[in-house]
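Structure (tokenized):
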């Protein structure tokens, strides 16, 4: 345990110092890694801990992004308050979707299809929602990047780097707390055997809803970050199923149900994607869909050679152990 804490503290110290030595491009790559680590951790709460597969998590990214962006653009509400509103909207949406699914016994593949359906009809709705630009896109006011405005999340990329780092650290700490708490034990009991958990007295419906609500609230924060980092929103882009697939790839490749898995998966996938893109740019060639091809190959290789994910295999070699007796996580 002591070695785990020292390793985590060293990693955090390195991450805090990186903006001092990285150029703007490499800093943007690190922001992407931290963003995908955060949303991967948020999805991991639902799937990795509770065993509920969502393939439409872009729903919560989009709802969170549009809620905070619209409040800022139309009413001047600062994004910090917009985050609270975004979380409330996403928790409400998750509660309705979860009640509809879990109350009537919709699980497994059918729950996954339900999440896709919710994301798709929300996308269609926003494409015809003129108040937020419809299919033409919604654009936030952009100010001088060299001037840091923390209140309105405006400034140099270093501001967004530290914000992404704070979000990733928040999701990591929350996941670690859940793993060690009563809720985490109930989540894993439901994941491993729902009927046995119900027979043991676990309020299955309630805790499945809790997992979905926590995951949705965290993902809403990712949506707010996305909106104020990129300053433009398009329904076809943010609600699309490809966005959901990007969210789930990091924890799947890194290790579902682990703490470091989503972080490692995000680092590997983003580094590979950006590296291949840079090589193709330097060579003067352009390969359409190379990012999707790369993700597919990485996923296939992980499933074939490391079905539990990259991190559990590394953790075993390094001798890390979980507090709950497992050997696939350094938490």
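Design, position by position:
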């Amino acid at each position: 345990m002591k070695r785990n804490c020292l390793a985590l503290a060293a990693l955090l110290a390195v991450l805090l110092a990186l903006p001092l030595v990285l150029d703007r491009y490499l800093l943007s790559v690190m922001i992407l890694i931290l963003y995908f680590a955060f949303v991967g951790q948020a999805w991991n709460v639902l799937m990795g801990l509770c065993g509920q597969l969502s393939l439409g998590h872009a729903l919560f990214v989009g709802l969170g992004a549009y809620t905070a962006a619209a409040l800022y653009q139309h009413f001047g509400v600062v994004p910090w308050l917009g985050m609270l509103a975004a979380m409330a909207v996403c928790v409400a949406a998750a509660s309705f979707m979860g009640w509809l699914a879990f109350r009537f016994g919709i699980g497994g593949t059918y729950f996954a299809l339900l999440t896709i359906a919710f994301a798709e009809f929300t996308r269609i709705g926003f494409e015809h929602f003129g108040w937020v630009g419809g299919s033409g896109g919604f654009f936030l006011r952009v100010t001088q990047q060299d001037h840091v405005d923390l209140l309105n999340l405006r400034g140099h990329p270093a501001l967004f780097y530290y914000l992404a780092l704070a979000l990733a650290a928040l999701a990591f700490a929350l996941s670690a707390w859940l793993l060690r708490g009563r809720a985490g034990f109930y989540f894993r009991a439901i994941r491993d055997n729902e009927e046995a958990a119900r027979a043991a007295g676990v309020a299955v419906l309630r805790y499945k809803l809790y997992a979905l609500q926590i995951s949705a609230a965290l993902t809403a924060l990712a949506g707010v970050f996305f909106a104020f980092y990129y300053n433009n929103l398009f329904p076809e882009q943010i609600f699309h199923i490809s966005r959901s697939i990007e969210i789930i790839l990091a924890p799947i490749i890194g290790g579902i149900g682990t703490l470091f898995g989503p972080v490692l998966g995000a680092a590997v996938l983003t580094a590979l994607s950006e590296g291949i893109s840079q090589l193709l740019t330097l060579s003067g060639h352009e390969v359409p869909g190379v990012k999707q091809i790369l993700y597919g190959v990485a996923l296939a290789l992980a499933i074939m050679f490391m079905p539990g994910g990259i991190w559990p295999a590394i953790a075993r070699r390094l001798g890390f152990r979980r507090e709950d007796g497992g050997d696939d996580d350094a938490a």
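Reviewer-requested clarification: The first strand starts at residue 138 and ends at 139. Strands lie at 138-139, 232-233.
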